[in-house]
Amino acid sequence: MRCKKIEKWLSDRIDGELSKEKEGVLEDHLERCASCRSYAASIEKLQNEAVSLEKPEVSPSFWEGFASRLKADLTSFKQGKKEKRPLPLRWNWVWSGAALLAVVVVGLYLLFFQGQMPQEMYVFSLENSLSRIYQEIGDDPELEELFNSVIIASIGESLEDSEWRERPDFLENLLLWEDLTEEEMKFLESEIKKDVKT
Amino acid sequence: MEDSSDGHLVTKAKQGDSEAFTELARRCQEKIYFTILALTKNQQDASDLAQETFMQAFKSLRSFRQRSSFYTWIYRIAVNMTLNFLKRRKREDAQEVLDESQSSGNGTEDSSLSPEGRSLKKELSEKLQSAIDSLPLTYRASFTLVVFQGMTHSQVARILGCSENTVSWRMHKARKMLQARLKSYLEGE
Fold this sequence. Notes:
The complex is a heterodimer of chains A (about 200) and B (about 190).
Chain A: H1 3-14, H2 20-32, H3 34-51, H4 60-83, H5 87-113, H6 126-137, H7 141-158, H8 161-166, H9 168-172, H10 182-197
Helix pairs in contact in A: 1-2, 1-3, 5-6, 5-7, 5-10
Chain B: H1 6-14, H2 18-40, H3 43-60, H4 70-92, H5 94-104, H6 120-133, H7 137-148, H8 153-160, H9 164-181, H10 183-186
């Protein structure tokens, strides 16, 4: 048994992630190998030191302030939502991703559904295409992750670095179009149609 | 009696109930804050990022499909947001970060391993903290979540969006780096 593998198993063991079978092999090896015993002792000490590192103290008033700031932010967010932002600003943002979304949706459509949908639906029913994609993704986290990363990377590439930075929430809101209104979806769809025609 | 389970609160919060969301936030705010603090090393940044995390979570609740727990989901937002923040800061302050790491980082080159008047343990703690801070970001994130938050590799994998095997390797590599950097202290007993 190579010591490099044993070193990784030692790390897994500290995290409580080593299987019983490996545990037995590990113990046998440690009995015979002084170098691995020494490594085991040092990373165990490291672990003990790490968990005993002092956490900075935070006063109860900090948490009170934290909670009231969050409450205030939530309230102003909800009020802002009621008032709704002016249309042009929202459209600017939607516009920037529209062309790329079209490309990605077409790509995914071809990848997943070619031959499965009636020809007349094609890609122009964006909403239908997306719901088919969601169905297809289902509970498969890998597929979802792949889908999200492709979309986000594509949109990121089309934006200036400064725009990207101003919109960190964009990174987190993976399936952004779930939050779009029906009106916005229709607008996107019509822009994509124009795009494809030209 | 009012159902105060996380699942029930999530359902209410999804319907726009900010009180329910505030309660969910209260239940995990300390863990989220200290995780971010362990990564940023700055209380103001940690506080701001924790606030942003909760706001982002509230805004994105509709897209939370409850396949994972609320806490896994919000940790994922917090860690992603913090890593993005740190990457951005690294770009903006490249020179400053370089200077800091040069002045605080390399324990193996420190010739004064046992200065008089300071306990070895205290010195080890300081060196360990500095060594953890100088780990590559993704390693530091895994190390923080596993060691300081007591999470399993599987939980961390879901938060960081990678495989369990990747987390396991990062933990191993992180320990190797820390052990190499602190060798003189760890073997000195």
